[in-house]
Design brief:
The complex is a heterodimer of chains A (248) and B (657). Helices cover 74% and strands 2% of the residues of chain A. Chain A is mainly alpha-helical and 248 residues long. The chains are: A mainly alpha (248), B alpha/beta (657).
Chain lengths: 248, 657
């Protein structure tokens, strides 16, 4: 079972960067994606993200994500083409301006999602939380909440699968081809999922408290996350990316 | 979280322990009662007990007896996490848990929760280990030492860098124990640590606990349903029933009361039942239950005498005559199999457990068990059966339908599945709707579906208007079972139907299943509890590494020691004992798999030895057969909440008393 946000172990430069630096890098790419207005810049940023993914050996995760995102992006393109009425008509109701803005919206969508996922696949969640607490002075409570939420995603999706399997075995037609019917069948399944998740969350809170959660301070973490030379270089790169985004 | 009504009524504080006591108790409960919420039933009712440092204490009791509540009291989760009404005082190292924060209590008492996924706070084993150490401010130069020591103590040093999500249930349990252990607690409280584990992993977990208890002097309190483990590993057993402490003593003292235990719904080791029955018959000293197969062997050998060939000729009569079920319907040549696997192979795309060349035929009217270690491919086989997975090679036929060409929702009309976790099956607002749901899916009209559902609900004694989620774990399993029974399916698939149930619930579930089989359903069951398998199954297939390595009647399978060993399955105590007795004492013991039968054989042989062969022999033959007859009779009058033959068999043991 391939989960897109699972940590992919590795020892590339990207893996070794400080988690905060990686976060900054992802944020810089996203900021640049929003600031950039030319196709060249948007495609360039996307290619840059994919190249980083290729380098860090997580391209399979990114490809898996693209498989989900590209259809969404295409729907967005279609909507833009329908609703943007300015510009010269190309064919039927399609106008050149519609295509132009729609295409950019698509690229932006991909450009925002991919860097975040790239960052999560090369960073252990605990490192991310600890580094954010140490460097960004975020209270541990919030960092823990965030990482726990992410950690529960695969747990709950497994649970959801198990529930769907159980319901299918009872004769609920989850094997139907009709997506709307499937969706309406899924709603009742959310009840058992909700019940399980509330119970799980409560147990996790208890387990964390019984291991001294409330004693934790900024200095608690055993691992330290100092900034190194490569981090400084990466921050410089962030500045360059944002500058390019503004210019192009 | 603050408890609204924490106790200040600290009753007679046992400040002056009696001088004979070895040390101050590490945990002491003094007339403690607790109810979740105002006016609710008391989950724990007036319990007083003291646990001395270094003890290994097992806690057992039927569902709803207050076992988890007791664990929460000891670990400080009550009153600090769960709120309700608390009376009396719980002292950990002499300090009232109401006066100390949960964090401080957990420096002394480490607790491992029932839901192991929820216990985890990190995604990598190493981070999981670090979490507690960091929080409690262990100096950083010592942390490495503590982590290594804890991982080594549990034997999982090689898992250190692994993602927790990729570990097996047994490995996760070890990680949870190691993470608590790293904090060097003086007491470990574990809530059903082996509920999801196969027998071999369960044994490993208890071995670890024993080593910690012996070598590190850690006090262990473990809630557990598996009596054979408790009796082997614990120094002391507490029996809870309806919130009260019923029995408290060494395993030998506790299991000498197997009759009373059974009355409240707690099983005893089969060896203890044998020796208690023999004691009741005046053949063994009373109050000295055997806890292991070795002890029972000694006892029986002593009673019967190593008389060699005596009774060898009777062997066939006794052992086969006692089993009423048709041994192998295949031999009788008649009906078509309800389930057929022909050279079935399947591999998960992402790797992991695969099955190869499975060949099976299960006939209407029989209970067929799949046994083997975790990861042997048993669950994969059941999913291939109910169509959730489709074979990549070969064919699976269910009631004449090939699963490759038939949609799962259609197969569901012929094959009903009862899953290990009922919560995944339940989705309706009331028990009635829930039970009727399966029928409605099959196209039965609402009125008729409700009518049939009501009949079944009545039989099970369930509240029809209650929300399934408000019921206890055992009752939820009964609701899930009821929604299978109401369908009257041709094939029933059971995946660990009894895990998490207490003895009585387990017997009720299995009894119902047995009745459905007798009424013509074919039952395929995956089960780790070999005692349940030996009580209820007719035939079994042994699986290892995705293959079926042996298949036959229960007696054949359990008697094949080489096969059992290859599959890492421990044969049930009675089968192990009878195999040894057959070898060392008398061949008359060969292939016996039930307590009553073994006791009868001992009585007969003892009587023969005493010189009066007729008396014992004639009377005894009626025993097990009577049990079988009543099994058939109870078919018609389906009992609500009571168990049929299995319980009657026990009743018979009692009657012998």
């Amino acid at each position: 079972m391939l989960n897109v946000i699972d940590y992919v172990p590795g020892n590339t430069l990207l893996h070794r960067l400080n988690p905060v630096t990686k976060l900054a890098l992802a944020a810089a790419i996203i900021a640049a994606t929003f600031l950039a207005s030319s196709y060249a810049a948007l495609v360039g940023l996307l290619v840059f993200t994919l190249a980083l993914g290729l380098y860090a050996g997580v391209i399979r995760q990114l490809a898996g994500l693209l498989k989900v995102l590209v259809p969404v992006a295409l729907i967005m393109l279609l909507l833009q083409v329908v609703f943007v009425r300015g510009g010269a008509p190309v064919a039927g109701f399609v106008t050149d301006e519609g295509l132009y803005t729609g295409g950019k919206a698509c690229l932006r969508l991909l450009g925002v999602a991919l860097p975040l996922i790239l960052m999560l696949t090369v960073t252990k969640l605990n490192d991310l939380a600890n580094a954010c607490v140490e460097k960004l002075h975020i209270p541990y409570k919030y960092a823990f909440t965030f990482t726990t939420a992410l950690r529960f995603v695969p747990v709950f999706s497994q649970e959801m699968n198990a529930i769907m399997e159980a319901q299918t075995a009872r004769g609920v037609e989850f094997d139907t081809k009709n997506p709307f019917k499937k969706l309406s069948l899924m709603l009742p399944v959310c009840i058992p999922l909700l019940v399980t998740s509330v119970a799980k969350t409560d147990s996790t809170a208890l387990a964390a408290e019984q291991r001294g959660f409330y004693l934790r301070t900024r200095a608690s973490s055993y691992k330290r996350y100092p900034f190194r030379a490569c981090d400084a270089a990466a921050f410089a790169l962030c500045a360059v990316l944002i500058a390019l985004g503004v210019l192009l | 979280m603050q408890s609204p009504s924490a106790s200040s009524v600290t009753a007679p504080r046992p400040g002056s322990p009696d001088p004979a006591a070895p040390a101050q108790p590490i945990i002491q409960l003094d007339h403690v009662s607790f109810s979740y919420g105002r006016g609710a039933r008391r989950a724990v009712d007036d319990i007083s007990l003291a646990i001395a440092p270094g003890e290994f204490v097992g806690v057992i009791g039927p569902s709803g007896a207050g076992k988890s509540t007791l664990a929460s009291l000891m670990s400080g989760a009550i009153p600090h996490h769960y709120t309700g009404e608390l009376y009396g005082a719980t002292l950990v190292e002499g300090r009232d848990t109401c006066d100390v924060t949960l964090t401080d209590i957990s420096r002394i008492v480490g607790s491992v929760l029932q839901d192991i996924d929820a216990q985890m706070v990190a995604s990598v084993v190493e981070d999981e280990m670090l979490f507690g150490l960091e929080n409690f401010g262990v100096p950083h130069q010592h942390i490495e030492k503590f982590i290594t020591a804890a991982l080594d103590a549990v034997g999982i040093a090689d898992l250190r860098q692994r993602e927790i999500a990729t570990l097996s249930g047994g490995q996760k349990q070890k990680v949870a124990i190691a993470a608590i252990l790293a904090l060097a607690p003086r007491v470990l409280v574990l809530d059903e640590p082996t509920a999801a584990l196969d027998p071999v992993s369960s044994e490993t977990v208890f071995e670890i606990l024993r080593a910690l208890n012996r070598d590190e002097g850690i006090t262990v309190v473990v809630i557990e349903q598996k009596v054979a483990l408790l009796s082997e590993y614990c120094d002391r057993i507490l029996v809870l029933n309806e919130g009260r402490l019923t029995l408290d003593g060494t395993p030998r003292e506790v299991f000498a009361h197997s009759g009373e235990l059974r009355a409240i719904g707690v099983d005893s080791p089969r060896t203890a039942r044998i020796s208690n029955s023999l004691a009741a018959a005046g053949l063994a000293p009373a109050g000295q239950p055997c806890l292991t197969v070795d002890e029972a062997y000694e006892l029986v050998a002593g009673v019967v005498g190593a008389s060699g060939g005596v009774g060898a000729t009777d062997k066939k009569n006794t052992s086969y005559g006692a089993r009423p079920a048709p041994v192998s319907p295949a031999a009788s040549g008649a009906p078509a199999p309800a389930v057929a696997f022909e050279h079935v192979g399947f591999a998960y795309p992402a790797g992991g457990a695969a099955v190869t060349d499975l060949n099976l035929a299960v006939y209407p009217g029989e209970v067929f068990a799949l046994i083997g270690q975790n990861g042997a491919g048993k669950t994969t086989a059941t999913k291939l059966l109910n169509g959730l997975l489709q074979p990549t090679e070969g064919h699976v036929t269910v009631a004449g339908h090939d699963t490759r060409t038939t949609p799962v929702s259609v197969i569901a009309r012929y094959a009903a599945t009862l899953f290990q976790n009922p919560d995944r099956q339940l989705c309706k607002n009331t028990v009635l709707e829930e039970v009727a749901f399966g029928l409605e899916l099959q196209g039965v009209n609402v009125v008729e579906a409700h009518e049939r559902a009501r009949a079944v609900i009545g039989r099970f004694g369930l509240p029809e208007d209650a929300s399934p989620f408000s019921l206890s774990r055992g009752q939820r399993q009964m609701v899930a079972l009821a929604s299978v029974v109401v369908l009257k399916p041709q094939v029933i698939v059971l995946d660990e139907p009894t895990s998490g149930l207490d003895y009585r619930e387990c017997m009720t579930v299995m009894q119902t299943v047995r009745e459905m089989a007798d009424a013509g359903s074919a039952v395929v069951m995956v089960c780790h509890d070999m005692e349940v398998v030996s009580d209820f199954a007719d035939r079994a297939a042994v699986m290892a590494d995705g293959r079926i390595i042996g298949c036959g009647t229960l007696d054949e399978v359990f008697a094949n020691a080489a096969l059992m060993e290859r599959a890492y399955v421990a044969p049930p105590q009675v089968a192990a004992l009878s195999a040894r007795l057959a070898q060392g004492v008398s061949p008359a013991f060969a292939n016996i798999s039930e307590v009553a039968e073994l006791v009868e054989t001992v009585r007969r042989l003892a009587a023969e030895r005493a010189g009066g062969p007729a008396a014992g022999g004639a009377g005894s033959a009626a025993g097990p057969d009577a049990g079988g007859a009543s099994a058939a009779a109870s078919l018609a009058a389906a009992p609500a909440g009571t168990a049929g033959p299995a319980v009657e068999k026990h009743a018979q043991e009692d009657a012998d008393a």
